[in-house]
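dumping the sequnces here before i forget
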Amino acid sequence: MVDTENFTLRQILSNDDTTKLSLGNEAYTPLKIFLKKSAFDFHQYEIAKTYVLINQTSSSSRVWGYITLMSSEIVLNEGQRPQESSATSRYEAFPAVKIARLAIDKALQGNGFGTRFLDWCINHVRLAIMPHVGCRFIVVDAKRDSVAFYEKSGFVLLDTESNRTDDHPLMFFDLYKSNIL
Amino acid sequence: MAVKTSTFSGWRLSGKDADAFLKQISDPMPANPLALAQAAIVRGCPLAEEYLTKGYATFSPMKKEKKASRKG
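..and the predicted 3d for all of it:
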């Protein structure tokens, strides 16, 4: 039984224990493998940044959850868009941050830690990235059973029939339209 | 057509997907997602500010906070 009272989010370190994350479903094995084998490499070589959840009351640095963020973009292929479309855009591409990975240990699931990660991520991008370099969207290729989770924090599905039935539907959070502060 | 070649790639939208995306970002944001997004901003802002100040953020379980708030 893990004490769920005191957890810290911080950047991943080389000596973090990334081997014990338990997600309770074989479908999530790639999330475990990425954390164990690739997350720190991606982090130190500036490919994608991983933030981990560590129990403050434990002497070990066992990782209980993580989120991996990276620079991304939404590119519009102008040439393939139908001529009869009334939708137009001045921009060929929109800057974005992508949630590449998000996982919470099964021992902590149901306590809102995933929502905490998401809320922190939205605001980290909003405060630390968007005002300085421009960033319109946070995007995620969601797992089908995670769509409702992202919707609860204001993410929306790309509204097409094919996307709604996709195994990994595209979802986005519009930072410009949601910015209230 | 929406294309994403891997978890670590961006999106390439064309055809109906590009049109749907442009329409979504041009139209006013529907009330429910907007309210949820703004609630997420309100909840997460202190966490992000703590992280930017200290280099870490403290997470506590949400359910216990709700219980505590119900108790006044």
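Chain A has a mean pLDDT of 91.
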